[in-house]
Every structure is written in structure tokens, then in C-alpha cells.
Design brief:
Blueprint (H helix, E strand, L loop, with lengths): L2 E6 L4 H12 L3 E8 L10 E5 L16 E4 L5 H4 L2 H21 L4 E5 L11 H16 L3 E5 L4 E2 L7 H12 L14 E2 H13 L4 E5 L1 H7 L1
Parallel strand pairs: 1-2, 1-4, 2-3, 4-5, 5-6, 6-9, 7-8
Helix pairs in contact: 1-6, 3-4, 6-7
Length: about 220
């Protein structure tokens, strides 16, 4: 039976790969995307909506899909403040989840982060953990939390700090084994592939996928 997919963050590092995979998947008759600007990509199955994320309730009728793929995310540098970062990485994904659930969505797939924990000393991990907890409280039939480590891939913008981090982790990846294996960088293409694999064979309830799980599922 054909399904519909809602993808948020289609122009991001993981979202771009996810979009291509969704459009190539015959199980999805329609792929709906939300964004602030037009998409360059065009496809018969693709429906793109330009939205104001500050007024998501105004677009409630188009925030729909059987499977919701949330690839939204920013950095402190891009956001400019902790408040702005939390808005993008917590408020928007949660509001989209609420609206999509009201419209009949049954599976929400989130790109979270390894170390996500609402009690973490690190603000980034704490926000991710808060979002995971809030999503669980919504009661989705299936909630899939993908927790990659540092993401690698071709970004539209260059992030010097992350590039240095990637290089260091790559150099010392031979030492990251056993419990430390989850610190190895996670390829964005692997995350997208894992998301599609999880959507194709969903496990009801709340499921968390750590970096080693993502590499296995790709």
C-alpha cells in the first residue's frame, strides 16, 4: 500500500540524501516537504510548501504524511543565541510532530544526536534530550530516534569547527572501538539510509538508534 512522507529539513546535510531516497522509493506515492524557500529539486511525487516556521499552525492542513522525517537542525553559531537554537532544534520539530499527529501521522523519525539527555550538562545534548522526551509524550504509534555522532558529508556551508573535529576523529578512528565506537563520525548518507530502512520496517513504540545501529542499518 502506498504511503505519504513529510520531510522537514530537505536542504540540510541529512535531509538532501533523505529526499533523494524517498523520491526513489516506490512505496511513497507523495513526498511533502516544508521550507522557507523554494526547492531546486522537482519531481512528479514531490509537493513543496514554503512556510513561515514562526507560524506553523497557519499551515496545519499541509503538515501531514503517514511517515514524518524530521531532519531540522542548526548550530549555535548559525542560530546566534541559545534561545534561537532551541527554537529550531526543539520548538519547530515538536510543533510539526503535534500537527502531523493530528492529521493522522503514525511514524515520526527524528535526527537527534548521540548523548541526547535532558539532564546533560551540555546545552546541545540537553535540548536534544528535551525534544526526545516531549515527542515520547505525544504518543506516536511509532517513534524512531536516530542518534548519530558528528555528521560528515558535503555541506552547503563550511563549518570550520566541525571540519577540524571530523579530521581528528578520522585520524584517531582506529582507537575508537568497543564502547568508544559511537564517537566515530557518522556519514549523513548512512543516517538517511537508516531512516528509510527504519520506515520500511517500523517497530512499534519508541526506538532509539545509536551510531553503531545506524551503520548497521544503512
Amino acid at each position: 500500500m502506498s504511503r505519504s512522507a513529510l520531510l522537514v529539513g530537505a536542504t540540510g546535510l541529512v535531509g538532501r540524501h533523505c529526499l533523494h531516497r524517498l523520491l526513489a522509493d516506490e512505496r511513497y506515492a507523495e513526498v511533502i516537504t516544508l521550507g522557507r524557500r523554494p526547492l531546486e529539486h522537482q519531481h512528479p511525487q514531490l509537493t513543496h510548501h514554503i512556510v513561515n516556521f514562526e507560524q506553523l499552525a497557519d499551515y496545519a492542513d499541509v503538515i501531514r504524511g503517514d511517515d514524518v522525517f524530521c531532519c531540522l537542525g542548526t548550530t549555535m553559531k548559525q542560530a546566534g543565541s541559545k534561545e534561537a537554537f532551541r527554537t529550531v532544534d526543539y520548538t519547530y520539530p515538536l510543533q510539526i510532530a503535534e500537527l502531523a499527529l493530528t492529521n493522522g501521522a503514525t511514524h515520526y523519525l527524528l535526527v537527534s544526536a548521540t548523548g541526547a539527555n535532558s539532564s546533560s550538562w551540555f546545552f546541545y545534548n540537553r535540548v536534544k534530550g528535551d525534544l526526545e522526551n516531549a515527542l515520547q509524550a505525544l504518543g506516536y504509534p511509532t517513534l524512531s530516534l536516530l542518534r548519530p555522532s558528528l555528521l560528515t558529508g558535503d555541506r552547503a556551508e563550511k563549518r570550520t569547527g566541525e571540519q577540524v573535529g571530523e579530521w581528528l576523529l578520522d585520524v584517531f578512528s582506529f582507537a575508537l572501538r568497543g564502547p568508544l565506537a559511537r564517537a566515530r563520525p557518522t556519514a549523513a548518507t548512512d543516517v538517511a539510509a537508516a531512516m528509510i530502512a527504519v520506515a520500511q520496517n517500523p517497530t512499534p513504540g519508541v526506538q532509539a538508534y545509536e551510531p553503531e545501529d545506524i551503520r548497521r542499518l544503512k
